[in-house]
Amino acid sequence: MDHYGGGGANMRAVGAHFMMAMPEVLCTQGGPGDIQNNKRLEECLAAIEQEVGHLKSMREMQQVPGTNQAPRQLADRLHALEQELWHLQAARMQEEARYRPPIPVRPDSARHRLPPLSHRSSTPNSARLAALPQPAFVPVPYPVSSTVPSTMVSPRAKEHEELLHAHRQLIESMEKQQQRHTELLQSHTDLMKAHMDLLKRHMGGEEEAKERAPHPSLGVVRLDYDYPPAGGDTDCPASFGYDVYYRAVPGLTFELCQAGHFGEAVERRFAEAIKYLEQRGVCAITGDCGFMMAFQVLARKIATKPVFMSSMVQCPAIAASLQPSDQILILTANGKSLRPQKQILLNSCGFDVNEDRFIIKGCQDVPGFDAVAKGEKVPLDIVQPGIINLTMRFLQENTNIKAILLECTELPPYADALRAHTGLPVWDAITGADFYVSACRDAARFGLNEWQEAWDREQEDYKFGMNLIETDKKLLQNLKQKGEGEAKPLKTARERAAEVRTARAKAKADFRTMAVVDKTKKKLQRRQAPRLGVVRIDFNYPPSAGDVDYPGSYDYEVLYRVVPGLTWEMAKSGRMTVMVRQEFVKAIKWLEGKGVSGITGDCGFLMAFQTIASEVSTVPVFMSAMIQSPMMSVAFDKYDKILVLTAYSDTLSAQKDTLLSKCGFDVDDDRFVIYGAESVPGFEAVGKGEKVDVDYVTPGIVKLVKGILTKQPTLRAILMESTELPPYSDALRKETGLPVFDAITCADFFISARKDNPRFGLNQWQCDWDGQIADYQLGQNLSDASRAFLVNG
Description:
By secondary structure, the protein is α/β, with parallel strands linked by helices.
């Protein structure tokens, strides 16, 4: 409602006109000659004076009876217009004073709020201005001791500026509070996520199970043959550090397996066993008899997972790591049975065998070992000394033997004792299984973590004939021979007495076994824990966790030795100078002198020097992860492909002949699909010798491989050729579901042949690794003379 009557609208119009015109009038820079500006100033003054007079008259008319008070709004507006009128008059006086000579200021004029008036200031307007009351908050228009300023800031503008400044400060404070609030929310979100993860781990929620991949497991195809397996035997679940599932093949007897062929009915059940194990989610499949290697080609046609029906698949990698003149001892249950199939078994491994290089020795004459053929429990206390004596005598007669392979699946219980007594690397069915499973297992020391479930350390309680339907179970010849299902007659007193005597004899035998073991431990001096030796090229860079040059990538001790002058460019060329070759030989001998169990390189190009290294060394040498390629190719069908991921796609072409002769790897073979990671964002730091941001590069590696898989649907495995690619193995295992082999799985494979297996066999014969990881600086372990030749030291 308008309290000002008809004059209210006029007042607001004049006030609005004044507010729009006043800044322009006050900021005018023209002089007295500027007629237009002076005219506008006069018009504003006249209008406001007229409005002030009108409001005063209205105030008198609208006073509250009996009082001197007018309505509040009218009084406020009148007061505001009086202030504005005063400011306009003061502005006009400023304009006039700017173009007059300055007048000396009287001493007492400093106490006045208005500027001192000159002889020309006695005008009607100035008289009215002097008569007006001066607002208390109006500042002095200009300093006392100076001339009048060119502009004058109104109190309202100053107040507005102060409000704007306060507003800006308030906005800045609110932004800081908002930022802090966002940080607190993020911290709270992270805390809640960690809390939920902890709850899931403790409560075993379904969501946690969906997010994580299952722990890898092994599938074992069993003969139609039942016996009590010892610890270390393939048919003993306790021999493995992961879940193992079994499936017997009805009708596949030991004699049929030894013959190397079976009929259509058994073949169908053999295929059903493989499909059943894959349905259980196993990541690899093996057999419980070395003679099953005769069915390797058939098995890998049926399976989509890696298949290794015998420990003999390890032969190519073992042979490639040694000198051509070195021999390999193959221990089997019966040499007469295996020897006729030697060529067939080894050819099934995809490896050209030299008859003189692989020496087969049977254990059929070892006292107590005949229990294997009888299906009885093997007396370890009697057999173990016999196995050791047989091997030691054979090594004395054949001094060129540098490695041992246990072909029979019932021989791994004696592997540790052979390692302790001979000092040679010993491979068996368990090291073979561990190798293939490691390609699917989370690498706990680096890479992606918590993507796979932890093993619960509980094995399925398997009984012979389990996992078979009733019709197939009835076809088991072993169960028929034992008369399963028939009523057992009551035992006579003589039979019960015989059982008591047998139990007592068994107790004494167990006691003698412990005594023999204790006696063996006392005779043996505890051997050093296995070490890995790494030959480094003359290239200095900060390695990431998982890199070969990162000591924390291993769960055993590792020693480094750089070769001065062996630059990345020289290694890529595949040729060394005379001086560099001498330093290379020195590095091999120095590492071997430190007691390493195997020697590798920190660059895939060093595979070109595999022959030189193996000729110098007496321990296995594997200068590149490519040495695993034969073990990978033999585990898949000939129509399946393997992805070889390298740092640069053209790196392997220069080493075509070396790879083919030493690893059995044909660069031109269509089964091997070679791709480089040089286009992945962030991976270029490898070539520059800079620190690689693994978290940043990982999505690019995964995207690259997934793109390859869409173009190559028959890819079944991945081999990381570059020594700087293992940090991404876990991410590829999770995202692709394929087995991934790299330089670390390769090193672990060769070290396992010298390492105590804590799950079975002889224990406490080897010193434990202290877990200490020593820092290495490039050039360390070099003499001053050799260090002087370092290019990148």
